[in-house]
Amino acid sequence: MAVLTARRPLYELQRDRKDLMNIIEETARRRNDIVHRADRLQSDPAGKPQDIGYASAKQSVDTIMHVCLALDELVVARNGDLKAEARSQLVAT
């Protein structure tokens, strides 16, 4: 039985993998600052809340959304390949 896999899926996206990972990691860090420390830095939880702009927040969220959509397309395509492979094996037997 084949396993639904995508080898190195971020390499399949038409963007620099390091750039995408930096955006995802920074967004996750910022989310944790907001949720766990009322938007204060982990290194200074008693400090002043960080500034945030709509445009940069929107860009980060949109980037993650587009990565998710692209990965979903890869999964759907791989699933289709596996179904076709399974059908051809049934016909061959």
Notable traits:
about 90 residues; mainly alpha; single chain
Summarize the structure.
The chain has 93 residues and is mostly helical. It has helices at residues 9-12, 17-37, 54-92.
What does this structure look like?
This protein has 93 residues and is mostly helical. 69% of the residues lie in helices and 0% in strands. The two termini are 15 Å apart.
How would the blueprint of this fold be written?
Elements (H helix, E strand, L loop, with lengths): L8 H4 L4 H21 L16 H39 L1
% residues in beta strands: under 5%
Structural class: mainly alpha
**What level of helicity do the residues show?**
55-70%
The rough form would be described as elongated
Distance between the termini: 15 Å
Question: What is the number of helical segments per DSSP (H or I, 4+ residues)?
Answer: 3
Rg of Cα set: 20 Å
The secondary-structure element order is HHH
Q: Based on DSSP secondary structure assignment, what is the total number of beta strands? A: 0
Largest sheet: none
Low-confidence stretches: none
